[in-house]
Each structure stands twice: as C-alpha cells, then as structure tokens.
Request: fold
Amino acid sequence: MTMTCRDARDLADAYLADEMSVETRHDIERHLEACPECRAEFEHGRALRGSVRRAFLGNAYLQSSPDLTASIARTLRPASGTARPSTAWRYRWATAAAAVILVSAAAVGVAMSMDTAQLLSLARAAWGDHRNCAVAFRLAQKPLSLEEASWSFDASFARLQTTPGAVIVTAGGDALVTERHSCEFGGRRYAHIVLKFKGELVSLLIADEETSHGENVLRAMTMPGLHVRVLSVDGEQAAVFRAADHLGIVVGHLSETDLRQLTAALAAPVASALAG
Amino acid sequence: MPHVDRLFRLAMWLERDRAVAEDLVQDTLRQALESFGRYTPGTNCRAWLVTILQHLRSNRRRAASRSPLVDDVDDAAAGAMPFVPPIPEVLTDEDVLAALKRIPLAHQEVIVLSDVEELSYKEIARALSIPIGTVMSRLHRGRALLRHELAAFSARTAGHRRDVASRSTT
Reply:
C-alpha cells in the first residue's frame, strides 16, 4: 500500500506508542525512508512525548511527600491487637500488599508434590512466548523494560537487567544476550532474556511469583540444588530450573545436550541474583 | 513505593490540590486492597490502579453533583485543524506543563496516561470508560492542541525578550 503523508501523520501516535500491526508499521517505515518531512515530524512527535514525561517526573509540585507514604502504609496494614484475621484474608492481604504497595511478604513454604502437567503447561506457554515474542515480534501488549516491570509486577525482575551477563560461557561455546525485557503471553508475565547460541535464538523466561503461584509449579520444583529438568512438549524441548522463588524455562531449537549445557550455565547466576 | 508516587503525581495533576490528591490516592489503594480478587495476575497492576483512581474521581464528581469529568469534546475534536505548528526548539519543563494545562482536561488526561503512565490504548480506554477510537482521536487532537499552545507560548516569550532588549538599548 502506498501511504500518503497525511495517512502517515494520522498514524504517528499509534506508531510511536507501538500500537499497530506489523504490516502497517512496515508501510509507515517505508514511507519515512522516502519522506524527510514526515521523518522530521515523527521525530518532533517522539521528542514531545519525551518532553511531557520528563516535565512530569521532574516537577517538585507533583511529588508525593514521605508523610503520605507512611500514612498509607499505616492505614492499609491490618491493625495489631485486633482479632486475628482468617488465613484466607491474611494470605489475600499479603498478596495484595505485595502487588499494590510492594511490601515484600515472606513466602510461606509449602512443599507440594511435583505436578508434571502443570510444568508442561508452563513449558508450552514458554514456547508460545518464544515463538510470538522473540521470533515473530507478535504480542498483544508491547514488552516493558525489566525496570518498569519490576515496579508493576515483580520487584526482583530489576536484578535481571544485568544477570545473566552479556556473554554466557558454556562447555559447548559462548551464548550472547541480545535482548532483555518483560512480556506477557497467554495471561502469564515473564522476564524474557533472548540469547543467540549456536546460531539459534533461545529464550530464557522467568516466571514471576504470581504466574508461578497460579500454577503451583513453583512449589512443585522442590528438588534440591540447581536441578535442571528437560521436558518434551509438542515435539519441542524445554529445560526448567528453579531460581529462588521463581522458575526459569529455557526454550529454543537446540539438541538436548546443548539445551542442558546452556541452562546449567544460566541457572547458577540467575538463582543467585534472585535469591539476593 | 513506586505505585504511590506515580498515582500521587497523576492525582495531583488532575486535582491540583494536595489534600484532595492524597485522599484520592489513599482511597484508591484501600479500594484496590478490598477488590484485589478482581485483579488479573500478570496484567498491568499500574493500569488497574489508575482505573480505580479514575472511577473514584468520577464517583466523587457525581456525588458532588458537579459536571462530568470530561465535557463531550470529541464532537469539537472532529473539526479540522489543518496546520500543526513546529515545536519550539527551546522548551523548559515549565513551558511544557504550562501548555498542557491550557488544553481541555479530556485531552490532558489521555496524553498523561499515554506519555507519563505509559498505558496502552486499551488500558487508557478501560481507565476512562471510553472507546479505544476515542482515546486515539483525543490523543491526536490533544497533541495538535499542545503544539499550538507551545508555539503561542514561545511566540509570547520571544516578544517579551524583544521588548526587554529594545528597552535596554533605548
């Protein structure tokens, strides 16, 4: 489709907000390559969005006071000395507080038997995310930076901004990290680290606490140490390991030996970072 | 508490009154806690909180029998605005916020939710209870209005500088 300047400018906001189909995005990019005026216009639009954000974040008048934060924490915390709330309520409160005000709630460890069906479900979802996000760039919601996802979903995602490092040394050669973000696929939220290993795109997906809790798979992985379990799902393989109170899943078109070697090299630093 | 800081910034911008904004944020978090069962794990927690905040604002306005939060600006927005002026090269944060304040609240809201809160169109539509098409048209119109305000502001500032310069040379 040939796009006019007017068409392109009408779609500028959706383009800059990453709210359009891949096809339309490509049409716009083709137009921008050929049209310096529209290119400049899009750059103005991008700059204006940045200016609004910067102005907001830097404005002292709009900042909250420490008193408000303390007052909210006091108000929302259940009063001590009152009747002991039910277990369900206490659990709900802890979960809500963790999500809403990022109060870290101590996890109650309940060992459950391994449920392979749940692990397979997570492995299948991980392959879905790998195909749709890392390979085809086709997600319903745009990915977030790990830093932003750490504010909204899981504080420990921030630690994955630098771990694993850019180069992962394995017995079978080096793997290179090409991308880090947080994305959602099939109702699950992940920290997603994309790597290149032996010429293949490989995804390391780390399921956050809520995702893990929903499936009970986190507590299903109760093996001691950094045990790596390789599962076959729909003719593909996925390697799963536990990292503190998260679950790591590695997927990609690799031989089982390569998948195990890479996962073993990833598991140790990730588990250490998430335990910290 | 990153959520509190961000919610407060949004509430403060919308209400322009510290006490009202603090009260609104407290009520938002209390409501979030009470209805946590309705939160879908894995979705954007911040967008969910913004939706609660907007609904509380809307209820308060209704309870106070004041006008709706947003006038029906979309019909007016359908009018043509053929010329969009360039963005002035020199802009301070104060210039940007002052210009933003001068455009209709309905347009301010979508720009702030998109640019500052970084919500998706779908999340903005849910928070404001409006169709996605309206989010898009308000963003389009709002950005054009913002650029007009910035250009006008810049022209006024330049005129003021010229006046000061001519007075100092005479």
Remarks:
- Strands of chain A lie at 167-170, 173-185, 188-197, 200-207, 229-233, 236-243, 246-252.
- Chain A has a mean pLDDT of 76.
- The first strand of chain A starts at residue 167 and ends at 170.
